[in-house]
C-alpha cells in the first residue's frame, strides 16, 4: 500500500513512472546518503527519473491484537487502551520519520542535478514492494546493510537479488564518482548481460574498464577476446586480464591493486543446491569487497 507519493516534474500513472527509472531504497541506515548519491549519479548519467522508496516493514509495527496476550485475563481495559494508543503513536512516528528521510534524500538528489525526483512510502516487505515495482525499474540501488542488522536490507539482499531481473547496485561505501570499473566475465548468461550493459549504457562512457576472467588460460583466451571486441566496438578503453586462484580472492585483490571503484558481475547461479554446497560467489563477493557491486541476473 502506497502511503505517500510525490514528484517533481515527473508524471506518474498508478504510482509508476511512465519512463524506466532509477529506484533508490532509503532506510536511514549507515549507507543511506551514499545510496542516494549513487542513485543520483546514475540518474544524471543515463538521463532517467529517480524514485526514492522508503519501506515500513509489517514486522516493524506490531499488531495491536498482539498486545492482548501480554495483559492476561482480568486486566484493566485502560491498560489495553494505553498500549494501543502507544503503538498507534509509534506507527505514526515511523511514517513521519520516513517522510523526513525521503524529503532530505530528494533535496540531496536535486542538488546533485537530478531533474525528475519522486518519493514513495509503502507498508510492505521490501521484496514485495520491489517485485510490484519491477516493470518500472531501470536500475535498483540499495545498501548492503539495513538500519536493523537483523531485519534491514542486509538480510533481505539475497532475496531481492534473486527475485528481480534488473541491474542492482549494492552500495557498501561512501559515494565516490567511479573512474575505473571492473567487469568480471566468465561467459555465463548473466555475465553476457553485464557485458551488454557496460557496452551499451552511457553510464560507463569515459570510464576505464578492466575486463577480468578467473580461470585456466585455455578458457580465458577466447572469452576475453570475445568480450574485449564488444567493449572495443563500444568505444571503451579496455584492459583485459586473466587471474589465477580462488575467484573471490582473485577479484578482490585485483580491485585493490588497480584501485577499482565499481565492479560489474553476474549474480547467483540458477542452481540453488550448488550454491548451498559450494557457497555463492556473489554472496562471498558481497561480504568481501570494499567497493560497490553492480549485479545482473
TrEMBL record:
Name under which the protein is recorded: Nucleotide-binding universal stress protein, UspA family
Domain UspA: 22-171, 217-297
SUPFAM superfamilies: Adenine nucleotide alpha hydrolases-like
Top-level lineage group: Bacteria
Organism expressing this protein natively: Microbulbifer donghaiensis
Pfam families: Usp
Family designation: Belongs to the universal stress protein A family.
InterPro entries documented for this protein: Universal_stress_UspA, UspA
Transmembrane domains' residue ranges: none
Amino acid at each position: 500500500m502506497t502511503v505517500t507519493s510525490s514528484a517533481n516534474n515527473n508524471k506518474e500513472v498508478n504510482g509508476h513512472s511512465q519512463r524506466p527509472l532509477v529506484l533508490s531504497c532509503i532506510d536511514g541506515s549507515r549507507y543511506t546518503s551514499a545510496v542516494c548519491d549513487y542513485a543520483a549519479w546514475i540518474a544524471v548519467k543515463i538521463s532517467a527519473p529517480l524514485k526514492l522508496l522508503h519501506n515500513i516493514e509489517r514486522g516493524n509495527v506490531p499488531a495491536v491484537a498482539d498486545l492482548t496476550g501480554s495483559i492476561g485475563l482480568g486486566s484493566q481495559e485502560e491498560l489495553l487502551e494505553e498500549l494501543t494508543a502507544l503503538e498507534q503513536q509509534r506507527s505514526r512516528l515511523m511514517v513521519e520519520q520516513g517522510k523526513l528521510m525521503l524529503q532530505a534524500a530528494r533535496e540531496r538528489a536535486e542538488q546533485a542535478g537530478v531533474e525528475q525526483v519522486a518519493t514513495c512510502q509503502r507498508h510492505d516487505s521490501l521484496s514485495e514492494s520491489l517485485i510490484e515495482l519491477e516493470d518500472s525499474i531501470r536500475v535498483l540501488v540499495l545498501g548492503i546493510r539495513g538500519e536493523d542488522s537483523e531485519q534491514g536490507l542486509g538480510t533481505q539482499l539475497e532475496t531481492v537479488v534473486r527475485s528481480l531481473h534488473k541491474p542492482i547496485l549494492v552500495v557498501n561505501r561512501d559515494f565516490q564518482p567511479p573512474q575505473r570499473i571492473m567487469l568480471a566475465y566468465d561467459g555465463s548468461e548473466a555475465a553476457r548481460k553485464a557485458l551488454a550493459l557496460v557496452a551499451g549504457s552511457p553510464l560507463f562512457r569515459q570510464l576505464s574498464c578492466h575486463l577480468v576472467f578467473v580461470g585456466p588460460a585455455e578458457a580465458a583466451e577466447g572469452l576475453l577476446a570475445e568480450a574485449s571486441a564488444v567493449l572495443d566496438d563500444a568505444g571503451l578503453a579496455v584492459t583485459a586480464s586473466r587471474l589465477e586462484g580462488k575467484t573471490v580472492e582473485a577479484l578482490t585483490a585485483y580491485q585493490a591493486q588497480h584501485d577499482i571503484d565499481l565492479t560489474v558481475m553476474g549474480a547467483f547461479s540458477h542452481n540453488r543446491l550448488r550454491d548451498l554446497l559450494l557457497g555463492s560467489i556473489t554472496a562471498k563477493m558481497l561480504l568481501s569487497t570494499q567497493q560497490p557491486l553492480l549485479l545482473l541476473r
